[in-house]
Amino acid sequence: MATRRPIELTPEQLALSEARKAKKLKLSENPPAPEPATNLILSRPWISLNSDPEPGRIKVHTWNMLAQCLVRRELFPTSDCLKAGQRLPMLHAEILAQDSDILCLQEVDNLEKLLPPLQSKYTTHYTAGPGKKHGCMILFKKDDFEKQSERLVQYDQEEIRDEGSDASRRGLSFKTRNIASIVALKNLSKSGPEGVIVGTTHAFWHPKYTYERCRQVGIFKREVGKFATEHHLEHWPCRERLEASRVVHVSIDPTVPPTTSGPVGDDEDQAVDPDRVITNARRATPSDGLLTDDELVALFALGKPFKSAYDEGLAHLRTSASDIRTFGDRVSCEPDMKGSNEPEYTSFTFFWKTVLFVVHCSLFSTEQRSRDYIFVSQPTVITGLLAPHRAEHLGRGLPLKGICGSDHVSLSAELSFSNKGQASLD
User: Fold this and answer.
1) Best CA proximity match to 178, nearest among 203, 214, 158, 210
2) Fewer Cβ close by (within 10 Å): the C or N end of the chain?
């Protein structure tokens, strides 16, 4: 019986075979982003605020994902999806649902499992405070943007005065290891602004530490302006994302240093993580150099003003017929008060529902407000918003299967920049 000769491939066939192998290898290293599984989460309608076909719109998204390392059954007794395997598909579905151009995520951990389905579409920039097991991440479409520069702000190290002792220059009330992340993204498309400056932060969580949250957010606003100036990008529009973190349910006696109940684990880093437990707390003394009220106001006056995408967008929507409830409806504040048109809830759990004092950057105030914001530079036009969840859809508290995989509600806004982004931030 004659022996078969091996088939000899032509150079063209060999080249095609190699190309297929290379494509298969690339797909194995960077699998394509899965289609959003909308049945895993409760879908929300998109609100169009401007139907004109303006080119160069950018859709931004922000979300506190609830770090898995911070999940405790005693904090979320009514939740039915606290295990990592249950939450991960829901987290991916939420991130991909809006096909956003830029995303800011907080309380991000488990990167080795979170990132693979996202990396075919997005470039990621992850930062965390020293010793922290979770951090902040900025994602941007790799075909549309390119990172030009970056800045990490460590609040514990930032100074708020030029003179005095080390403590006085920092005006720090508590070492939190919280950070802010700022990036300059060059726009690779032919429409829209030349680029955008994106910043996100996760301010200190504890309800008794209003001062430290104010200090951190004031520094964040200041540093975004400094970043733009230092890199000669003052003409680029800015987008800030503020997240005042979550409130751990504890009983607090003003005379006793606050602490959490229940185990925090054997890991040494966890035992001293201020996201879990407050230790070595004491009352402030004059030598700590805390900012006075006037100094805090002056800190927030630095840099150019910003406006809230949801506060402005929902206020515009409510001039016509709208059944979307806002924060102002829940607490009965004046409709023209800054922050009154923020979503009714952006965090909704069994124990707490946005019961944290936060600074609303456009004026300096410490009223009780929604805790998640999208701030943008002026004169940015808000052309669309993702509708907030209705309270009646959130059951007895998030996270919940089929609703949301985090205790926070994500926010998304579509933005249009006048004069191709030559926006003065006045």
Assistant:
1) 203
2) N
In tens, the pLDDT along 300-351 reads 999 888 999 999 999 999 888 788 999 888 888 887 888 889 999 999 999 8
The answer to whether residue 22 scores a pLDDT higher than 90 is no
Q: Which residues are bridge partners to 184 per DSSP?
A: 149, 197
Which positions ≥6 away from 140 have C-beta within 8 Å? 101, 102, 103, 122, 123, 125, 147, 185, 198
Question: What's the mean pLDDT in 17-36?
Answer: 72
Domains and CATH numbers, the chain: 40-421 (3.60.10.10)
Q: How many CB atoms lie within 10 A of CB 361?
A: 22
Q: For the packed helices 210-230 and 293-301, what is the interaxial angle rounded to 10 degrees? A: 30
Q: Rounded to 5 degrees, what are φ and ψ at 43?
A: -70, 150
Q: CA angle at residue 125 from 95 to 86, to 5 degrees? A: 35
127, 179 contact by CB (below 8 A): yes
Residue 194 burial (CB count, 10 A)? 14
pTM: 0.81
Cα–Cα distance for residue pair 42/400, rounded to 1 Å = 10
**Can you read off the two tokens belonging to residue 134?**
């979770």
DSSP labels for 269-331? HHHT-TTT---S-----GGG-PPPHHHHHHHHHSS--EEEHHHHHHHHHTTS-----BHHHHH
Using a 10 angstrom Cβ sphere, with 0-12 exposed, 13-18 middle and 19 or more buried, the burial of residue 26 is: exposed
Which of 353, 407, 409, 368 has its CA nearest to residue 386?
Answer: 409
Phi and psi angles of residue 326, each rounded to the nearest 5 degrees, phi first? -120, 175
Question: At which residue do the structure tokens 């390119």 appear?
Answer: 146
Nearest to 313 by CA among 416, 410, 401, 222: 416
